[in-house]
Amino acid sequence: MTNFADDPVMSLRNGGVGSTADGSRISSALASAFAKYAPLLGLLATIVILGVEFRYQLDFAQQPLEPYRIFFELLIAGLIIAVLRSKVGLVTYGMFGPIIISFILVESGIFWGLVLFTNVFLLALGTYLILEPFRLGTAHRIGGLVMVVSIGITSFHVMSDTGVLPQQIDALQVFFPAIVTAWYADRFARELSERGWRAPAVRFSWTVVSIIIAAAIIGNETLITWIMDTPETWAVILAANVYLGTQSSMRVKEYLRFSNVYGGSRLGAVVSTIRAKLHNLTVPVRRLVGSDASRVEPSEVMSMNRRNSTTSRFPSDD
Q1: What is the pLDDT of residues 57-113, one digit of tens each?
Q2: 33, 8 in Cβ contact below 8 A?
Q3: Whether residues 20 and 74 fall in one domain
Q4: What does the DSSP assignment read for 183-246?
Q5: How far is CA 10 from the centre of its chain?
Q6: Which of 128, 207, 288, 309 has CA atoms 20 to 30 A from the CA of 105?
Q7: Which of 216, 246, 276 represents a domain boundary (last residue)?
Q8: How many domains does the chain have?
Q9: Residues 178 and 270 both lie in one domain
Q10: Residue 315: which domain range?
Q11: Checking phi first, is residue 104 left (phi over 0); if not, alpha (psi -120 to 50) or beta?
Q12: Co-location of 25 and 45 in the same domain
């Protein structure tokens, strides 16, 4: 049963005016809306105030935030990976992993970064397969992977120092990415034993694609510099991430998968989605004036985002 207290617009529409009960419903709807939006608005306002304070206290002509560039790259990388997962539909090994590993590609270039990432991954995967017959516990298995990866990274740097390989990356830059890559190999191998090659190979491939895309974007120095020097945009980026996260639209991969629902036309899928979104934008206003308006979906297919949003409203029996 729908709980109108969770939907302020429906509560206002169905409540009407002129009675104590109606007034109570409106108050409840307003209280629910305040409890939902006030903390987020307060957080955004705090970030805006912080940005304004930075604007007045720092001389941005001297690029005072340049030593902290990596944190702004992290900010954008997080948004990129989130969009790739929730809107494009890329299936990756986690969120933090692709973000962290993308910094290798930014610092060393895409080619040598991928060389290092691939070597560490294959080294850790090979170590896992060697240790698997001994049925080690998780702690000792991961410990063994980290040990071998550490020796491998050391060898990589020694070869760089002696001129065998180009000296592209320092030890600090690859520390966390190397650990994450070892974890990737462990998870890949475990999934491989449970599901076969196809599923983990696809997931790993999309993970690499997301890493490359994130690295290509955060490697744009002009973009990152502009964000650093424009503190007013920091709250906008966070707000954009929250907004995109609340939208349960079809993912790009779902357009391709269910194109037959739109008569086999991918362009038809896009047009239907745009028309549905334009209609849904007017629904709250039309409800307030008493119109019997409801949201529409571009197709009968329930998108993964909407499915996740719907199921999250119901508690698990576990």
Answers
A1: 998 888 899 999 989 999 999 999 999 998 888 888 888 888 888 887 887 778 878
A2: yes
A3: no
A4: HHHHHHHHHHHHH-SHHHHHHHHHHHHHHHHHHHHHT-HHHHHHHHT-THHHHHHHHHHHHHHH
A5: 31
A6: 128
A7: 246
A8: 3
A9: no
A10: 249-318
A11: alpha
A12: yes
Pick the closest to residue 104 from 8, 35, 24, 184 (CA basis): 184
Amino acid at 109: G
For tokens 């297919």, the residue is 301
Say if residues 168 and 162 touch (Cβ distance below 8 Å): no
Tokens of 272: 């239907």
| Whether residue 197 sits in one domain with residue 111 | yes
Placement of tokens 């090979």 in the chain: 126
| Residue from 205, 207, 191, 235 nearest 100 by CA | 207
Which tens digit of pLDDT belongs to each residue from 256-302? Answer: 666 555 555 556 666 666 666 666 677 776 666 666 666 666 554 45
Which of 192, 218, 246 delimits the end of a domain? Answer: 246
- 35 and 70 assigned to the same domain: no
Task: Give yes or no: residues 227 and 122 share one domain.
Answer: yes
Kindly state the helix (H) or strand (E) to which residue 71 belongs, with its residue range: helix 69-83
Is the same domain home to 152 and 240?
A: yes
Residues 130 and 195 in one domain: yes
User: Residue 186 above 50 pLDDT?
Assistant: yes
One-letter-per-residue 3-state SS of 231-261: CHHHHHHHHHHHHHHHCCCCCHHHHHHCHHH
CB 278 within 8 A of CB 293: no
147 with 120: CB under 8 angstroms? no
- 3-class SS at 287? helix
Which stretch of DSSP H or E encloses residue 157? helix 138-161
